[in-house]
Write a structure and sequence with these properties.
The protein has 107 residues and is of the alpha+beta class. The protein is built from two helices and five strands; from the N terminus they run E-E-E-H-E-E-H. The protein starts with a strand and ends with a helix.
């Protein structure tokens, strides 16, 4: 069991049984290479009891995941904690960018 902390941007959320998976792009600090990591969480019903919903994490949300590396060496972790790392200002800026794109697509 090797602990691992990942900081990145949510690219996909799979809300399925038996476990929820979050995928995030993580930039390597040394090489600058971006790797898409998968983080396995608990079952959907367990997360719902703790207040999570399908919409809790939107694509593009910056998060920090603490967990344990997959034994096979793949870019996967069994998540123990997930923390949203964006500030309110970051979230407002992101929301405004999405709204601008939506308005631009409606022209």
């Amino acid at each position: 069991n090797k602990p691992k902390e990942l900081q990145g941007i949510v690219t996909k959320v799979e809300w399925t049984n038996p476990h929820v998976w979050i995928y995030l792009n993580v930039r390597d600090e040394e090489s600058g290479e971006v790797t898409n990591w998968g983080a396995e969480l608990g079952p959907p019903h367990g997360l719902q009891r703790r207040g999570w919903r399908r919409t809790t994490l939107a694509i593009g949300t910056p998060i920090t995941v603490n967990g344990f590396l997959a034994r096979n060496g793949s870019p996967r972790v069994n998540a123990r904690s997930v923390t949203m790392t964006a500030t309110v200002a970051d979230l407002v800026k992101h929301w405004m960018q999405i709204q601008a794109l939506a308005v631009g697509n409606n022209k």
